[in-house]
Amino acid sequence: MVQRSLAKLFEEYEGRIRLVFKDRPLSMHTLARPAHEAARCAGASGKYWPYHDRLFAEQPKFRRGDLLAYASELGLDPDAFARCLDERRFAADVERDIEQAQALGINSTPTFLINGRPVIGATSIEEFRVAIDRALQERR
Amino acid sequence: MGEKDDAQRDADDQVGPRWVRSKDVLNQGFHGTSLPVAMGTAASYSRSVKCLSRCAGRPSRVYYSWIGVTLSLLTLIVLAFPPHAFAQVELTWSPSMVKGPSGAPVTIIEFSDYQ
User: Fold this and answer.
1) Mean pLDDT of residues grouped by 10 in chain B (115 residues)?
2) For residue A59, which phi and psi values (nearest 5 degrees)?
3) Closest approach of chain A CAs to the CA of B112, in angstroms?
């Protein structure tokens, strides 16, 4: 729902929005961390956003086999992807994102910072528009 | 007899030392008028404070003063360290996890969980 809103807003405000994704897997979600690491593995091959979209579309099917299948369907090298996942090559990067989130007091997801201003929770597209328009006005 | 003692003690409390009054002013700054209004009036002291006062042999005003001081300190701590101090942390991100032009006037940083 929120992802659809963001995609729509990205089209509406084309060229005026930059979206940054930060990993904040919650500890109670045991399958989340491998999914976040897998997305970064896909990112290393230039497919971060397609894999990101796929994960949100398929949640919570994040077993190892699922993660490998999504990579394969996106045309990623299955062996290289499996190695990246099994070696946990991006575990430290995910951990760094978590530490930054915790340092900011972000303990629930999703949480957005729109030009530094926090927007917490599954916000409606109208609320996003208000926050973005305000941020644009402040930049003028 | 106990009631009379309370009334006498509370009346005496109204002639308190100067420093208590200055703390009242401090409390008024942070908490509006709730605490100072309650202080210094015999009928305004709660039964539990009166009981505590009677048992410990100290005037009720002493307890209210300490409550006021504690609340003031807590207020100062909350003001100094807000729960969402968003501006204090330097954020880093991988270029592959960014979408949109780097010069865009609005940056949305999303902290999210796939699950």
Assistant:
1) 49 40 36 37 60 68 80 79 63 95 96 94
2) -55, 140
3) 5
User: Are B30 and B38 contacting, i.e. CB atoms less than 8 angstroms apart?
Assistant: no
**CA closest to A35 among chain B residues:** B114
For chain A, the structural domain boundaries read 1-24+106-140, 28-97
Beta-carbon separation of A18 and B89 below 8 A: no
C-alpha span between B14 and B12 (Å, rounded): 5
Domain ranges across chain B: 2-84
Q: How far is CA B90 from the centre of its chain?
A: 31
Torsion of CA A91, A92, A98, A104, to 10 degrees: -170
d(CA B36, CA B68): 9
Question: What is the sign, positive or negative, of the torsion defined by CA atoms of A79, A62, A128, A94?
Answer: negative
